[in-house]
Every structure is written in structure tokens, then in C-alpha cells.
Design brief:
Elements: H1 2-19, E1 25-34, E2 41-51, E3 54-63, E4 73-82, E5 89-91, E6 117-121, E7 125-129, E8 137-148, E9 159-168, E10 178-187, E11 190-194, E12 200-201, E13 207-213, E14 223-234, E15 240-249
Antiparallel strand pairs: 1-2, 2-3, 3-4, 5-15, 6-7, 7-15, 8-14, 9-13, 9-15, 10-11, 10-12, 10-14
């Protein structure tokens, strides 16, 4: 990643110094600086560039034209700072979801017990569906995902988990129709719970619920288990919950 950022920084620096400016680049600071290689004065220019998932900061040391230099970059330092939501959005494959025991789900919700089922029609729909309530009752179904934190993850940063979901049905007990997220770090087969923000109400129309996983102690490459718990409650008739997408920032 650092090698990539350095190459990108050199390319940006050369382009900016040659053309004078780029529309998406903001010069944050420009100050004279001694040249490390010649008896001339150089300029230290710090720029910010908005990129997918955050901001790239590039500091360029270049020879000053005003002091006999040729304007070419001599050294470049680059830093990527993710956005508050945790950097790039990464989607988890719905078909990789498991029961809370870690065994595969099926196309039938409730098989294994308490597990969502996958519903797919080619070219039309791919969602995870919970069990339907019957009369005044409630159903709880879970979906377990595992993933590794990417190289772009900033050690110790909180992780934003977004669940796009909704329920279908008419007589629903809204206050008891909720999505809960639990998260665990896993090291050599040992799980440890990570703090996550509270349960949220599942909407009637598909929408995003954003949860925050506390990232204290996590590092790039860490293995994380994410468990979604979907509770739907009805006053009468049938109500079903569904998960349309699951993503995290990092």
C-alpha cells in the first residue's frame, strides 16, 4: 500500500508541478525548504486529494524555480486517511452466510433452526429471508459472516457496518421488529466479543441501518465474525424480514 501511495504521489506531484493545478487537488501549504542535494532552496508543497474512501495527502519537496531549480520533485511522502465511516465500502457475499453454529444455510428460512434462508431469482433478486410469523408471534433468525480486515484498515479504528433490510407484512409490532449486530474477533479459534451499537428498528421500506463496531485492539488482517440477529413480531397475520445487503468500511 505504501509503495502504491508513493508511486501515486510522485505521479501527482509531477503532474501538478508541470501543469500548475488540478481541479480535484487542494494545496494546503507551501513553504521554502533547504534542498537535501543541492545548494538551492526547495519548496515543500502539501496537497490533499479526495479519493474513494477518504483523502490522500501528498507532501512534495521540489526545487524552486525562483532559486535556480528546475522544479522537479526530489522527495514525496503520502498518507491516506479514511473517511469517518471507515474507508472503502466492502460488501459481504450474502450466499456465504452461515447459521450461528457456523454451518451452511439453505434456501428455506428456519433450516437450520433460527437461520435465514437465501432467496434468489436469476436476474431479479438475491436476498436473505427470515421465517414468516403466524398470528400474534415472533420469529428470530440469524446470519453469520466472517471476513479479514483489509490492508487499508487503520489499526484501532471503529468499523461501520451497514445492513440494508426491511420487513413485509401489514400487522407488525414495530417496536419489536429489530436488527441487532454482534461482532467478534477471532484468533487461533478463540472468539472475543467486540462492542457494537444498539439494535435498530427494521424499516418497512428497504433502508440502511448503520452500526459501529469498536475497533480497539484490531489491526489490518484481523479475522472478524459478524452475526446479524433479525427479530420480527406481528400482531396478527404473517410478517417476514429480509436482509438485502451487508457491508463494512475499512
Amino acid at each position: 500500500m505504501n509503495h502504491f501511495l508513493r508511486k501515486l504521489g510522485l505521479a501527482l506531484a509531477a503532474s501538478i508541478l508541470a501543469t500548475g493545478a488540478m481541479a480535484q487537488t487542494v494545496v494546503l501549504d507551501q513553504a521554502p525548504s533547504p534542498s537535501p542535494t543541492q545548494n538551492t532552496i526547495s519548496e515543500l508543497v502539501t496537497q490533499s486529494i479526495s479519493v474513494a474512501g477518504g483523502t490522500l495527502y501528498v507532501s512534495t519537496l521540489a526545487q524552486s524555480h525562483q532559486n535556480g531549480g528546475n522544479g522537479q520533485p526530489q522527495a514525496v511522502a503520502s498518507t491516506f486517511v479514511p473517511v469517518a465511516s471507515g474507508g472503502l465500502t466492502r460488501y459481504l457475499a450474502l450466499t456465504n452466510a452461515k447459521s450461528d453454529l457456523g454451518v451452511p444455510m439453505t434456501a428455506t428460512a428456519g433450516t437450520p433452526a433460527g437461520t435465514v434462508g437465501v432467496t434468489r431469482t436469476a436476474g431479479s433478486v438475491l436476498v436473505l429471508t427470515g421465517e414468516a410469523t403466524s398470528g400474534a408471534s415472533a420469529k428470530t433468525d440469524k446470519a453469520l459472516f466472517e471476513f479479514d480486515l483489509p490492508d487499508t484498515y487503520v489499526a484501532g479504528a471503529n468499523i461501520a457496518v451497514t445492513v440494508n433490510c426491511n420487513y413485509s407484512g401489514t400487522v407488525v409490532t414495530t417496536a419489536s421488529t429489530t436488527m441487532t449486530v454482534a461482532a467478534y474477533s477471532e484468533i487461533n479459534g478463540v472468539e472475543a466479543a467486540l462492542p457494537v451499537t444498539a439494535a435498530q428498528l427494521i424499516p418497512a421500506t428497504a433502508g440502511n441501518l448503520v452500526f459501529t463496531v469498536t475497533g480497539t485492539g484490531l489491526t489490518p488482517g484481523a479475522h472478524v465474525a459478524l452475526e446479524l440477529v433479525m427479530l420480527v413480531t406481528s400482531g396478527s397475520g404473517a410478517v417476514t424480514g429480509q436482509i438485502n445487503a451487508v457491508s463494512f468500511g475499512g
